[in-house]
Amino acid sequence: MDLIGVYEVSRPSLMSLLLSMIFSSGILLTSVINNMDGKVLSYIGFFWVIFCLIVVIVLLYRIITIRRFIEIKILPDSIIVENKEIEANRIENIYVKGYFKPVIGIKPVDHKFAPYKLCFSFLEQEYRGMKELTKWAERNQVKLSHKRFMRWL
Questions:
Q1: Cystine design at 152: which of 83, 94, 113, 138 (Cβ 3.0–4.6 Å)?
Q2: CA distance 42 to 35
Q3: How high is the pLDDT of residue 37?
C-alpha cells in the first residue's frame, strides 16, 4: 500500500442551497395559506412544503454534523476519502467543477449522482493535488471530466 499523496480538503458549502430551500418553501407556504380555494392545489402545496422542510432538516443536519476539513489519501489503485476507500474500478467518473477553487466530485459506478461525502475542494497545495489526481485518473483509466455535476444531498 504505497502512499502517493495525502491532502487536506474541505467539503463544498451547503449554505446557498439551504437558504434557497428555506426561501422557496416560505414563499410556497404563504401562497398556499393565502389561496385555500383550490383544495387539490393546497394539498399539493402542503406536500411540497413538507418535502422542502425535510430537505432543510437534512441540510441542517449535514451542516452541523459533517466535519468541514477532512483528509484524502491517493493510493496507487484507490482513493481514501474520510476513511472510505474507493477502488479505481468502482469509480465511473471524477468531475471537476470550476477553475479557481474547483470542486471535485467522485461518482461511483453504482450511483446516479456524486454523493456529498465524495465531493471536496483542496485547501492547500491545490495545484499539486489536482496534478496528482489527474495522473492517478490517467494511470487507473478513470474518466476525469471538467464540467458541472450534480451531487446527492
A1: 113
A2: 7
A3: 63
**Distance in angstroms (rounded) separating the CA atoms of residues 33 and 117:** 37
Reported as a pLDDT band with limits 50, 70 and 90, residue 14 is low
Query: How would you label 7-34 residue by residue, b for 16+ Cβ within 10 Å and e otherwise?
Result: bebebbebeebbeebbeebeeebeebee
Beta strands in 44-141 (DSSP E): 69-74, 78-81, 84-87, 91-97, 103-108, 114-115, 119-122
pLDDT at 87 over 90: yes
In tens, the pLDDT along 107-128 reads: 999 888 888 888 888 887 888 8
Task: Report the distance separating Cα 50 and Cα 139, nearest Å.
Answer: 46
The cell for 141 is 483509466
Q: Maximum Cα–Cα distance for the chain, whole Å?
A: 67
Measured in whole angstroms, the distance separating CA 153 from the mean position of its chain's CA atoms is: 7
Question: How far is Cα of residue 37 from the mean position of the Cα atoms in its chain?
Answer: 40
Q: Read off the pLDDT band of 3 (50, 70, 90).
A: low
Question: What is the grid cell recorded at 36?
Answer: 385555500
- What are the pLDDT digits (tens) for 22-65? 787 777 777 766 766 666 666 777 787 788 778 778 777 877 77
